[in-house]
Structures are given as C-alpha cells and as structure tokens.
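Run log, item B.
One chain of 112 residues. Sequence copied directly from the ordering sheet:
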Amino acid sequence: MNLIFLQQAPGGMESILSSIVPFLLIIVIFYFLILRPQQKRQKERALLLESIKKGDKVITSGGIHGIVEGIEEKTLLIKVSDGLKLKMERSAVSTIIGVTDQEPEKKSLLGG
C-alpha cells in the first residue's frame, strides 16, 4: 500500500500572504467608498436636526411644508397653515429651506 503524504511547499508563508492581501484591499476599499461617506452623511444630518430653530421653514420626509413654531427635545411643532399645527419628530425633517420673515431684521430697524 502506497501512502502519499502532502507536504507544504517551501515558501508557505508567502502563499498565505498573497491570498490574504486581496481580501484586506477589498475591506479597505469598502471602508473608504461606502462606510466613511455614510458616516459623514450621518454627522451632517445630526447637525442639521440640531440646528433647527423657531421660525425655520422646513420640509418633512412626507413632503409637508411648514414653519417651526415650537421645539422640544425630540419633537417639533410645525405650523402648516393658519390654525393648523402638527407635532412631529425631529427626524421627520428632511430639509431646512430658510428663516421666515415673521420677525423684522434688526439691521433694518437700526437704519444700517
């Protein structure tokens, strides 16, 4: 009976490294092309939601346009039309359009 024993070829460490390097490169590429930009967008969104203040014109993710009338920790009171205010989560805001002209600018009152 003849037994054949498999022996490791010389330079076995090099073959292991050459098979691991492509996987490491793929992981690095995924990090810089997918994970890092996503983290950046999440930080920008968090800053957007924290920067909401009373009088801002906003658009919700449902497409509702309104003016922020009240702010709580996690919710906003949004005036949609005269006599109609909706209480929504901050996370429902998708964009801030700008500040309303409800309050006159101090610059114009001071003559400057």
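Observations after the first pass:
- The mean pLDDT is 82.
- The chain has two domains: 11-50, 53-99.
Flagged for discussion on Thursday.
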